[in-house]
Design goal:
The complex is a heterotrimer of chains A (541), B (648) and C (99). Chain A is mainly alpha-helical and 541 residues long. Chain A has 23 helices and two strands. Helix content of chain A is 73%, strand content 3%. The chains are: A mainly alpha (541), B mainly alpha (648), C mainly alpha (99). Chains in contact: A-B, B-C.
Chain lengths: 541, 648, 99
């Protein structure tokens, strides 16, 4: 791709960043303007992301739409971006989900009606801030997906924490089971926990990033952070890493990504963060931001440190299996709807990591699809849960029951979101989960079987949640008065459900883009798929 | 013709989509739309059937490739259909019985405000079930497999406001998921062994794979079949599934869905034929279940649960036959079809009785209904005669053939299986006669109904919850309900004879399932005579117990066996003790551990840093002189260090 | 006279000054002790300048004297302000600079 053409990828990230600034600058009284502006910007970003997908040629080079500019020449840092199939799919996912997140959070950040009069409203501008922060996160996530320079990636990977910190700590559900003051306390605990966990991981990664530069500066004519340059130098034997160096660097990167993903036992920030934030922000965390972690494992851990990745595989697979089973078991035991979804997500991230480290094309294609489909399915489930919670003002499962009778559409969409979460065939997550399982089984049969047990546990936690909230007699007056989904809410959920069904039946457009990228990744780690026992079968077909 | 296959699935799928998304506008016409689309599917099936008859044996199979579903390096899953004689049989059964039950539901669900949605779910079920039998690879079959599970979940829990229904629905789905795990693993194994999971290449090459692999695949397929077909040890959901509306019990939990396991085993015949160990397990499961279901059926007072036990038992027959290999496949499918007729008829009859009795399900509160519901009585009676194997009716032919095949298994196994099937035949006659007598004969027992006995409060939970204590006025059901019952009664009477006319059914299936004549060690007439004797014995005992004495309205305490059979032979208690309670303890302790250990480690680290900084803070005491001391001290140390470095 | 003796004297003066800073509480005395230390340093500079025949040290001493003069102005002003607000010239009374 020529460097001189329109910088499409950068534009996709810059548009929401500019939109964030503009949204933040809207005067305090014009809250509605800020909302529509943010929505328009996110839709514009979606159009650009669609353009990226359209301009991406699945059969072409590995990285396309590349841009490269000198940045900090002394340290060999270049602003380098470009997308492969995996990044293109994830950028599209991000751009797709943000409009829904904004529309779902339409009323989540109003100034406190009990505030100290008009004066408070003039200085305190939560609405503008909320939507500006969401757009800021979007911009940083898109750059992280597109960065092919380790340093650029690192900067945005870490910078993302700042807007996320404010989104978690500053905007929670108004109604809290333990009272408003206690709610604010738990919210700030969650935000600090999120920040410290991710910062700790990020600092370890910073050391590894510097280490990587030192290694390249040592052996190459000039130090570099460029993914492609390093990969080429490694392939040609120009750059040799000592085994221990490579392993340490791998661990530095992997820890940061494992915190973000999150992998057991580094997961405990997620239930707090998702539980305390509003539903749209919870979706932003688990469906968008966390995907950067798993994506980076695929792109940086495997791409930069193939031998160390192979060395770490057994441990990672065991941790992923623990995540799957442990997350699902804890989800069964939760009493809080949002925390339940958070633990379910931990289980699902286990599947993604399992797929990545199974090192088979089915596993990695499955893991990539899983990232996209999990994003959509969790968004559907969590946003409907958010609508439910906003009606009743409680996150506790025990406060519900019989919703199906008074709000059938809400219950129906909730059930479909739940069924997608338990990977019902016909809905998109099934395709990805099955691919991950097949890919894992063909290399590690025992791990495949353990992971398959996860599908039974998923059925238990989803159906328990559904049974306790939606079915049974209507014996609480708050439930009896509950309105069904409003048009705005239906407009948020219906397209997500339609996508889940469409991609479940016809995932080919996505697999076509993802497959070549996965082949490249597998050739990075020099792995080939295990052959079937009876290779002649294909011939007789 | 090939392109019609997709329409078979598309018609009910369209119905489901329209009915479920259409909103209240369709409340008035929705049920007719659903019924019409089910009937459309049946007509298409019939057209394809006659077209198929026009061709010769091996050329009868049709294929339709729609699109590539999941194309990933080395892993190709297609949405493609295959319509051969086996699938055709199922298509006609599913759409035929399905259309009749749609028709029946129009009357049965007339007063339910959510009738439109009920028809949407029924159509969804038809689409999923057709997908299951038409798929040409195991992955697409899996889609249909879980699709029927979903439809079953939705329909069992249709009356969601009843907690018992919601619990039963959840239980059915989760138990089925355990089975689905087996199907998943079987597909993984096929993929690693054959590199594909399409029926054609896998089944043609099955004998080339190692026996160990095939046994593993076979056992995993059996696990799947156990889940879906309610075989021991995954049978526990079927009894609870009777919480659903009766048409659902007839269509899904008697005639079609629960036979999917038999379809799976028959379809995978080539794998089982090459894995004798797996076959032995299959026949064992079949034999155990056929007795288990029969014993449970003997003890239940709830008419639907008694029939559910019977369903379990009859499917046990089919699984046993399918496990016998080429001598049994065709008989398994034949029994499946005849069972589809008479069991659907029996359930619809039971529904008709409940319809006239204010949804009472306790047979001890029926009695003498033959005078009030003549059509129901006659059709139910014909179904009854068919299921107990009265000579000349459907059940006689299909069951007798399975018993013969069981004796032909050879050696000790043959005698054991033959004995089990004979005993099962006797038990079937016993419990069905019991149902018949309690419901239609004797004195009416519904008048002056006493309050539910506190001693056995769990006898009739649903009647208590319905809160209807008005005295019932038994009456015959409307025509939309009786017509399907009459049609199914015809099937119950004549299907078996028709199928057996010159072994027509066996020859029809032979190209797909392969067939060998069974050679029992004792002459066939002797076996037939023994079967009839066992049947008469069962009828006699039941008659002696229930027709000659007045039936108590409150069930007597009964022997230990009766009591445990009422509780499904304690299987539920076992599941509850081991899995449910164990699971609850496990999750609770894990929640605790996550908070204290995993999170505690992190919070502990944070607290340790906090404490350390608290100590360090004390050094900052605000006295300028102590700062000066540390400055001097620091300077002295620096100077000393510099001097030392010089000296070294 | 041997210029090294001046260094001994400077060391002695510095020690006296340092001791004064550390053990006295009166702000004026502490201040005077600091001046003593500064002048000890000046003396060292001048002595080394003489020993090495280089004027840099003397120039440096002038700088120090200028800075010391400025410091005296600021320091005495602070002490006066402190005395006015607290009616005490003890340095220990001004212990607000802590966490």
């Amino acid at each position: 791709m020529s460097d001189m053409s329109f910088p499409l990828v950068t534009a996709t990230a810059v548009l929401p960043a500019l939109g964030a600034v503009a949204t933040a600058a809207v005067p305090a009284a014009r809250r509605t303007v800020a909302k529509w502006l943010a929505l328009a910007v996110s839709l514009g970003t979606l159009v650009l992301a669609g353009w990226v997908l359209a301009a991406f040629d699945a059969g072409g080079e590995r990285y396309q739409l590349t841009e490269s500019y000198a940045w900090i020449a002394d340290f060999g840092v270049r602003y380098e971006v470009g997308v492969d199939g995996i990044a293109a799919a994830l950028i599209a996912l991000t751009a797709l989900l943000i409009p829904f997140i904004i529309a779902a959070g339409w009323h989540d950040a109003e100034p406190d009606p009990d505030g100290e009069g008009a004066d408070a409203g003039r200085r305190w501008r939560p609405t503008q801030g909320f939507f500006a922060l969401i757009l800021m996160v979007e911009a940083m996530v898109i750059i992280s997906f597109a960065a092919t320079d380790v340093f650029v990636f690192y900067i945005f990977f870490e910078a993302m924490l700042i807007p996320m910190y404010f989104l978690i700590g500053g905007f929670g559900d108004r109604a809290h089971a333990a009272g408003e003051a206690e709610g604010a306390k738990q919210r700030s605990y969650a935000a600090v926990k999120f920040l410290l966990y991710n910062l700790a991981g990020g600092l370890i990664m910073l050391a590894a990033v510097i280490g990587l530069y030192v290694v390249t500066a040592d052996q190459l004519p000039a130090g570099t952070f460029s993914l492609q340059q390093i990969a080429e130098a490694r392939a040609s034997g120009e750059l040799e890493m000592a085994t221990n160096t490579e392993r340490l660097l791998f661990l530095g990167f992997f820890l940061a990504f494992a915190v973000k993903a999150p992998l057991w036992p580094l997961h405990t920030w997620l239930p707090n963060a998702m539980g305390e934030s509003t539903a749209p922000v919870a979706v932003l965390i688990t469906a968008v931001v966390d995907k950067v972690g798993t994506f980076a494992m695929l792109r940086f851990c495997l791409g930069l440190f193939p031998e160390a990745s192979a060395w770490a595989t057994p441990v990672v697979i065991v941790l992923a299996l623990v995540s799957i089973v442990y997350g699902a078991l804890l989800a069964v035991g939760q009493r809080d709807i949002k925390r339940l979804v958070a633990y379910a997500s931990i289980s699902h991230f286990g599947f993604i990591i399992l797929g990545i480290f199974a090192m088979t094309s089915q596993g990695q294609s499955g893991a990539t699809l899983y990232m996209v489909f999990h994003g959509i399915s969790t968004a559907a489930l969590m946003l409907v849960a958010g609508f439910l919670i906003s009606r009743r003002g409680s996150r506790l499962i025990a406060d519900y029951g019989g919703v199906q009778k008074v709000a059938p559409v809400l219950a129906g969409t909730f059930l479909i979101g739940g069924l997608a979460t338990l990977s019902l065939p016909g809905l998109a997550p099934f395709v990805s989960e099955f691919l991950v399982l097949v890919g894992t089984f063909s290399r590690y049969p025992a791990a495949g079987i353990v992971a398959t047990a996860g599908i039974v546990l998923a059925a238990i936690y989803v159906l328990l949640l559904y049974q306790r909230t939606m079915t049974g007699p209507v014996d609480k007056p708050e439930i009896a008065r509950m309105p069904d989904l409003r048009p705005r809410e239906l407009a948020v959920v219906a397209p997500l459900i339609a996508l889940l069904i469409f991609l479940g039946v016809f995932p080919k457009p996505l697999t076509d883009i993802v497959n070549p990228a996965v082949e490249h990744t597998l050739s990075d780690v020099r792995e080939t798929d295990p052959e079937p026992e009876l290779p002649a079968v294909e011939a007789t077909e | 013709m090939d392109s019609l296959i997709g329409l078979l699935v598309a018609a009910p799928l369209l119905g489901a989509a329209v009915l479920l998304c259409g909103g209240r506008r369709l409340d008035r016409t929705g049920h007719w739309l659903g019924t019409a689309l089910a009937a459309t599917s049946f007509v298409i099936g019939a057209v394809l059937f006659f077209d198929m008859l026009g061709r010769e044996g091996e050329d009868r199979a049709l294929h339709q490739h729609l699109f590539s579903w999941v194309p990933v390096q080395g892993f190709q899953a297609d949405v493609a259909f295959q319509l051969d004689q086996l699938s055709m049989t199922f298509v006609l059964l599913i759409t035929g019985v399905g259309s009749l039950i749609h028709l029946y539901s129009i009357g049965y669900m007339e007063h339910d405000e959510r009738r439109r949605r009920f028809f949407g779910y029924l159509n969804l079920f038809l689409a999923a079930m057709l997908l299951l039998v038409l798929a040409d690879n195991y992955l697409l079959l899996y889609v249909g497999w879980e699709g029927v599970g979903l439809a079953s979940f939705l329909l069992i829990g249709f009356w969601q406001h009843k907690p018992s229904a919601a619990t039963a629905a959840k239980k059915a789905f989760i138990v089925n998921r355990v089975g689905d795990m087996g199907l998943s693993i079987a597909i993984f194994l096929m993929f690693t062994t054959f590199g594909t999971f399409a029926f054609g290449p896998v089944l043609e090459n099955a004998d080339r794979a190692g026996e160990g692999t095939l046994t593993a695949i076979g056992l995993m397929l059996l696990l799947a079949a156990c889940g879906k077909s309610a075989q021991v040890p995954l049978q526990s959901w079927l009894g609870d599934a009777m919480e659903g509306p009766t048409p659902v019990s007839a269509l899904i939990h008697a005639a079609t869905m629960v036979t999917a396991g038999v379809y799976l085993i028959t379809r995978s015949g080539a794998i089982f034929d090459a894995a004798p160990t797996a076959q032995t397990v299959v026949v064992t499961v079949g034999a155990v279940t056929l007795l288990f279901g029969a014993i449970v059926g003997c003890a239940k007072d709830d008419i639907k649960k008694a029939l559910a036990g019977s369903t379990m038992s009859q499917i046990g027959y089919m699984v046993l036959a399918a496990g016998l290999g080429p001598i049994g496949y065709a008989f398994a499918i034949m029994h499946l079809v005849t069972h589809g007729f008479f069991k659907a008829g029996l359930f619809l009859g039971a529904g008709s009785v409940m319809h006239g009795m204010n949804d009472e399900v306790d047979m001890r509160k029926y009695g003498g209904l033959r005078r009030y519901m003549p059509v129901t009585f006659v059709t139910f009676g014909l179904g009854y005669l068919a299921i107990i194997g009265f000579p000349g009716l459907s059940g006689f032919f299909s069951k007798d053939l399975i018993i013969e095949a069981a004796f032909s298994a050879g050696g000790v196994q043959g005698w054991v299986l033959g004995g089990a099937t004979l005993l099962g035949a006797g038990l079937t006659a016993y419990y069905m006669t019991r149902v018949m007598i309690l419901t239609f004969f004797g004195e009416p027992r519904w008048k002056n109904r006493p309050a539910p006995s506190p001693a056995s409060p769990d006898v009739e939970p649903s009647a208590q919850e319905s809160g209807e204590h008005a005295e019932p006025h038994p009456h015959e059901s409307p025509r939309s309900m009786t017509i399907p019952m009459i049609v199914l009664a015809f099937g119950s009477v004549f299907a078996g004879g028709l199928f057996n006319w010159g072994e027509a059914f066996v020859h029809w299936l032979e190209p797909v399932t392969s067939f060998e004549h069974p050679h029992p060690p004792i002459p066939i007439p002797v076996i037939t005579a023994a079967t009839v004797t066992m049947m008469l014995l069962g009828v006699g005992v039941a008659w002696a117990q229930y027709a000659r004495r007045p039936v108590p309205v409150v069930a007597p305490r009964g022997s230990l066996l009766t009591r445990s059979a009422r509780r499904d032979l304690l299987q539920d208690d076992f599941n509850h003790a081991v899995f449910v309670s164990g699971g609850q303890h496990l999750t609770r302790s894990l929640v605790y551990l996550d908070h204290t250990v995993v999170d505690g480690a992190v919070n502990g680290t944070a607290a340790a840093f906090g404490g350390l900084s608290g100590r360090m803070r004390k050094l900052q005491n605000g006295f300028a002189r102590s700062y000066a001391v540390s400055m001097f001290g620091g300077a002295a140390v620096l100077v000393a260090a510099t001097l030392l470095m010089r000296a070294v | 006279m041997n210029p090294v003796n001046y260094l001994y004297l400077a060391a002695l003066l510095f020690t006296i000054g340092a001791t004064g800073v550390l053990i006295r509480r009166n702000a004026i005395i502490v201040f005077m002790s600091i001046e003593l230390m500064l002048n000890a340093a000046n003396l060292t500079l001048v002595a080394f300048s003489r020993m090495h025949g280089n004027l840099d040290g003397q120039i440096m001493a002038f700088f120090v004297m200028v800075v010391a003069a400025a410091e005296v102005v600021v320091g005495l002003a602070i002490i006066v302000m402190l005395y006015r607000s607290r009616h005490s010239a003890s340095v220990d009374d001004a212990s607000l600079m802590k966490l």
